[in-house]
Design a protein that fits this description.
- The chain is mostly helical.
- The protein is 86% helix and 0% strand.
- It contains 21 helices and no strands.
Length: 483
């Protein structure tokens, strides 16, 4: 224990922050995952599916309302305007609140039209708009904490919200007949209490609400990226909305469970990419492109291995997360989980277009993926049912990743002296092995002895190479220290 503590104390502030952000993300997702079995038993499949559809609409509407101002433009602005960071942050809070207020007024005037369009009640729509604002407030505050390496504050606030939310939601769902609205209101109540405080802190510290300079800067940067943000959100959300419309809320509930299980991995991906992103950008800036290669292969293998482990245990996870009527979800989990691998890989490629501000390339790749997803869902869900959405998601993320890879090569030819960061052959070998193992292991769901035999072999391999695996993880975490 003392050895571990001495190693921890030796870490830089940046490395400590990276480690704690990773731990916090795992704890947040862990608490959310623990409550999933409770809600799948308190709510019917139709109610659980309806809440999943609500979450999907929230993601899509958020892009229009907030313009995703808490993404790239905000991170870049915090660095670019570091001397006026508090003023910049406060002005972004002011801009987001203004946008949310305008959209809320528009909704209230035409509420009947929007209620019918989204198949939501007035209370649900107002709660959705409120949660869109509070989510943006939290993300603005949290990103500033990350940039300044203030990991203690973000951990404290995140965990408090993560614990209180499910407790309140469970109480409200038990006591209410309209369980979907009850769960939504439980989330909204905690968000408004906590995020209002964060909003006031930002505004009070920056002493600014409107800044023509920063508002124009943010709008000019993010508006061209809206097709990209919208397309990526549609790519991850449209399937649940279309399943509800085409085959019913029951199937939407089953698919939502499969998607929720698969999304456990996105937390691992996001934490890993948060560590990698600044390091990759620095390598691009220093024109040391080839340094990225080995780290990228290592992280792809890591992501692939963890995804494979999740595929192997999918039947057990579903049985824990939900009652027997959700059992068919196991067949949707593997392709959706495999999609997560391509979500991670595309980000490795898109970094070059983002760095050189080739937003047109980013937009084209995203739009292609989203349009293809909607089209395939429209054609295949009526024929093959909700399971088709899992495979269209996988196919579209593969296409999405490939297009980003091709654009990356174009950017590298024009701006990196023709140096390519990755070898196509090695990427194909890693990806092919991952897909082959994923589909092979899915067939073992029909024979528990074969599957458990593979689990034992997998565990033995990890045990044999534990030192190598530990060293690779350590080398990734060490990247933050080198920044």
């Amino acid at each position: 224990m003392e050895r571990f503590l001495s190693r921890y104390r030796a870490l830089s502030v940046q490395a400590k922050a990276s480690l704690w952000f990773l731990i916090c993300a795992f704890l947040q997702k862990g608490i959310s995952s623990i409550t999933t079995p409770i809600f799948t038993r308190l709510m019917t499949k139709a109610e659980y599916g309806k809440f999943g559809v609500f979450s999907s609409w929230m993601g899509i509407i958020s892009v229009f309302v907030t313009l995703n101002l808490y993404y790239g433009v905000y991170s870049q602005g915090l660095v670019k305007f570091s001397n006026e960071r508090s003023v910049f942050s406060a002005s972004m809070e002011g801009l987001v609140l203004t946008l949310c207020s305008v959209y809320t007024v528009v909704y209230l005037v035409f509420h009947r039209f929007f209620n019918e369009l989204f198949n939501l009640t007035t209370i649900q729509m107002l709660a959705l708009l409120l949660m869109v604002w509070t989510s943006a407030v939290f993300n603005l505050w949290a990103e500033e904490q990350r940039v300044e390496f203030k990991y203690k504050a973000i951990i404290g606030v995140s965990l408090v919200m993560s614990v209180i939310k499910p407790i309140l939601c469970i109480i409200l769902v038990i006591c209410s007949e309209d369980k979907v609205t009850a769960r939504i209101l439980g989330l909204a109540m905690i968000d408004i209490i906590c995020c209002s405080v964060l909003f006031v802190i930002h505004i009070k510290r920056g002493k600014t609400f409107f800044s023509k300079k920063y508002w124009l800067y943010a709008l000019g940067f993010n508006l061209p990226l809206i097709p990209h943000y919208l397309s990526t959100t549609v790519l991850s959300s449209a399937d649940r909305i279309m399943i509800e419309d085409m085959t019913g809320l029951g199937d939407a509930g089953t698919y939502n469970l499969a998607y929720s299980v698969a999304l456990i991995m996105t937390m691992f991906n996001s934490s890993l990419m948060q560590t990698l992103s600044p390091w990759i950008y620095k390598k691009i800036k220093d024109n040391r492109i080839k340094d990225i290669e080995k780290v990228a292969y290592t992280t792809l293998v890591m992501v692939g291995a963890v995804n494979i482990a999740l595929i192997l245990f999918a039947p057990e996870i579903v049985s824990i997360f939900a009652p027997k009527e959700y059992a068919d979800a196991i067949w949707a989990i593997p392709p959706v989980i495999m999609s997560v691998y391509f979500m991670f890989s595309y980000d490795l490629f898109a970094k070059f277009a983002f760095y050189h501000e080739k937003t047109f390339f980013i937009m084209i790749a995203s739009v292609i993926g989203a349009v293809l997803n909607v089209l395939l869902n429209y054609l295949l869900i009526p024929i093959f049912g909700y399971i088709a959405a899992a495979y269209t998601t996988l196919l579209c993320y593969m296409v999405f990743s490939i297009v980003h890879y091709l654009f990356m090569r174009k950017v590298c030819r024009n701006y990196c002296g023709g140096t390519m960061p990755y070898k196509t052959k090695i990427l194909l070998m890693i990806t092919a092995a991952f897909l082959l193992l994923g589909f092979v292991f899915m067939t073992t769901y029909l024979n528990i002895w074969i599957r458990y035999g593979i689990v034992v072999v997998f565990a033995i391999v990890c045990l044999i190479f534990r030192k190598r695996i530990r060293a690779e993880f350590a080398s990734i975490l060490a990247l933050k220290k080198k920044q």
